[in-house]
Amino acid sequence: MLKVIGAGYPRTGTLSMKAALERLGFGPCHHMFEVMSRPEQSALWSLTPGEGEASWDRLYEGYASAVDWPTGYYWEEVYRANPDARILLTVRDPRRWYTSARETIFQAATTVDAAGQEAPEELGPEAAQAVERLQKLRRTLLNTMWRGAFGIDADAVPDEATAIAAFERHVEHVRATVPAENLLVFEVSQGWEPLCDFLGVPVPEGEPFPRLNEAQEVKKRFGSVIKGEAPYSS
């Protein structure tokens, strides 16, 4: 069962939050990179999430927490399946969020397309398998989420007004839905204290809060996934 459910959009500090939750004892923490890089996760999430073989228990088997999409997109269904979990809503300035998302996740489909145009022998077996997984995910899971949030397929980039409106609607919906005592609205710039207080754990002394969500770091890790390599060192 999940103990912490991240309801925030991608590019709101979710990679840093994954590292922080794992440091605090709420790991392993599920993240979109898990879905993209692990064949068993890619296969399950390419089905209809929450149904049949892809039941919520199966999708999150072995994980104690989850952040980023797809969790942040399906957070209500995941919450119903894990009613004792705490909800963590990561946020940031909407315009800065859009700029960051446009430079990273909204360009990811183009990267997958470019890689997919190369012959398998040019890519190498591991990279070819990774690209095939990502293309299937885009046709299934990513298209579902992009259409639901932005009204377009995952191979297109939403305009700023559309994306920011979706972002703000989502934040307000989570705030209005989750009881205040079970919700933390959090910006990673706030550091350890509010997060640890919310989760009831001590602050790691002498340790800076993880800072892993910069655009270049995310691009680097996505590049590793495209090559068929692990996106994390752990």
UniProtKB/TrEMBL annotation:
Record PANTHER family: P-LOOP CONTAINING NUCLEOSIDE TRIPHOSPHATE HYDROLASE PROTEIN (PTHR36978:SF4), P-LOOP CONTAINING NUCLEOTIDE TRIPHOSPHATE HYDROLASE (PTHR36978)
Residues spanning the membrane: none
Signal peptide: none
Record organism: Nocardiopsis suaedae
One Pfam family of this chain: Sulfotransfer_4
Protein name: Sulfotransferase family protein
Lineage, highest ranks first: Bacteria, Bacillati, Actinomycetota, Actinomycetes, Streptosporangiales
Gene3D superfamilies associated with the record: P-loop containing nucleotide triphosphate hydrolases
